[in-house]
Amino acid sequence: MMNHQPDPIEIAAAITLDTIRDAAACISGHIVRTPLLESPRLNDALGFRLLVKPECLQHTGSFKLRGATNAVMSLDESVTDVVAFSSGNHAQAVARAASLRGMKATIVMPEDAPKMKIEGTAAYGGHVVTYDRYTESREEIGASIAAETGATLIAPFEDPRVIAGQGTVGLEIAEQCAEIGITPDHVIVCCGGGGLIAGTSLAITEMMPDTDVWAAEPEDFDDTIRSLASGNRETVPPGNRSICDAVVTPQPGAMTFAINRHTLAGGFAVSDALVLQTMATAFKHLKLVAEPGGSVALAAALDGRLPNNTTCAVAVVSGGNADAAMFEKALAAGALY
User: Fold this and answer.
1) Nearest partner of 194 among 230, 234, 241, judged by Cα
2) Contact between residue 300 and residue 268 where contact means Cβ atoms under 8 Å apart
3) HSE on the CB side for 239, CA within 13 Å?
4) Which of 203, 195, 142, 222 is nearest to 8 (CA)?
5) Residue 51 — φ and ψ, nearest 5°?
6) How far, in Å, CA of 138 to CA of 238, rounded?
7) Fewer CB within 10 Å, N- or C-terminus of the chain?
8) How far apart are CA 23 and CA 173, in angstroms?
9) Closest C-alpha among 27, 316, 329 to residue 197
């Protein structure tokens, strides 16, 4: 008798605004409700009001804590071990969430991940196993560890609990915009595997149906943008490189793309050079430390990618775990405004 494999598209369809609200209740007390920030000087330079959602101020330094916490807190009491694979932000998030429940966390990370992300994961109690991201498969290594130890795998984006948890970013944006009496024309969100933008776009399109949601990706990792155009999940050539380590996944997730193909208006691809200048701009005008992958949405907003009739937009700065050397490089590049 054949085992029935869950259909990722059916799983994705089951994620709703109510699911995201349930996730918000689950993770409340474990995460920061990050504010919406703005700079009058930036607004004047851009010609529209730009609000920034700084998930770099989140515990562990990125939005990933939301999805990881929802997933880990949803596990049965019998679970004692979890395993995850990540370039760093999901790694730290799973390690912290597991520690809150007294679970052991094994985290598979690329050996060239930023040092502070590896150190942060270990500091939260995670046992780090490194691999070569260009010659080895983190999925295979994670699955092997799970099979050997009996640990429960917490995937970085192909998990409905993770997507719902990340969707609390969109829930907060909609609530905060309502609190100040505005409806933004656009919301821009970074996109790697697509978990953050899938959950966020679900919440935004339900709560602010007149607002367009856009993906932002590194220009050599524009797989979601190309997938939206073709209608199929496109891949990234294996030789491509980017400083935006947090969002350099090779293909959109099946679950996440099943959502994003219906909720997104399109996407913007940005260069590494623009990302460095954006990091400097965020520091100068918003006093934020943003990492490269966490800056791509803001980069698109600052670079004039939005329609000319834009009056108000929100950009999510998704993470702030930048090594000192990378941040120094960004400051040397100089601010855009």
Assistant:
1) 234
2) yes
3) 0
4) 195
5) -105, 135
6) 14
7) N
8) 15
9) 316
**1: which 2 tokens?**
């008798």
pTM above 0.85, yes or no: yes
Radius of gyration of the chain, Cα coordinates, nearest whole angstrom: 19
State whether residue 315 is helix, strand or coil: strand
What is the end-to-end Cα distance of the chain in Å, rounded?
64
Positive or negative, the CA dihedral 72, 75, 77, 80 is: negative
Separation of alpha carbons 294 and 9, rounded Å: 27
Q: What 3-state DSSP class applies to 82?
A: strand
* Structure token pair of residue 83: 């395993």
* 64-73 vs 89-100: helix crossing angle, rounded to 10: 40
pLDDT digits (tens, 9 = 90+) for 16-74: 999 999 999 999 999 999 999 999 999 999 999 999 999 999 999 999 999 999 999 99
Q: How many CB atoms lie within 10 A of CB 239?
A: 7
CA–CA dist 283, 266 (Å, integer):
28
